Predict the 3D structure of the following.
Amino acid sequence: MNSHKAKIKREVKKHIPKDWLCEVRILYRLTKETILDIYRTGMVNLVIVTTMAAILIIFGAFFRSAISISAFAHELGNALEISVYLKENSDANVMKNRVKEFEHVENVTIIPKATSWTNLKREMDLPDMENPLPDTLHVKVDKPENIEEVFKNVKQLNSVEDVSYAQDLAKKIEMLNHIVNLITIFVVIIMAILTMTIINNTIQLVIQSRKEEIEIMRLMGVSNWYIRFPLIMQGAFYGFTGALLAVLPLNIVQNGLNNVHQFFMVPTPLYAQQIVISIMFIMAVSFGAGGSFLCIKKHLQV
């Protein structure tokens, strides 16, 4: 029965001509109501916005630092190479082409045994003796996390005498990336909880101060969304304004990290600051509006 009524209601709405001027007036009234709610909150607005800005600065600084740490780890991982020592009668060029066929292999360089022996004699005082070193391949992998897979594939080749790489360093790089990602997720969760709690308490105060007015609107048959919308927009406003205040301190963090990248000659991640700021604004507005919505659902039966 209810579904039948809902269907009839939808069909009726389709045939009602839309009054765009009326909709603009409603939007104007809702915007005005949002501004009035913010005005009624008074000095509390400043406390909320600055608190949210502080939370967002911490989040933005952690997130931007995490991007830089990942860039450093990736750059260090790219410097890792697998050293492949070939057997005595192996053809280095054939082995080079064979290794290049493996997935994740980016580049293979042949180091002839004569070159290795010359370099070793230059570094150490060695007696005049026959070259005992083998031909070597230096294999560069596309990503640090794929180095173990390539290592196992190369090791199985018949012409390979031995294979080595800085395994401990690779594991530490992988662990560092894992820890940084976990910390970033943890900071996002804390930020969401704090933001929604602050917004929840604020909107609850607004609801209490407008309790009689809201009750009258409900008795007059005013749409639920007409009551909800200004409160949700108020939460979104707090999030947006807090993010706006957080931009300047984050630019200082960005400049500091750029100097660190220049000092270690590691390229700065492309569009890192723009990505951080964009995500910060999206999350701030979403959490602000979401906190308001949850508060309305909890304290306002509309």
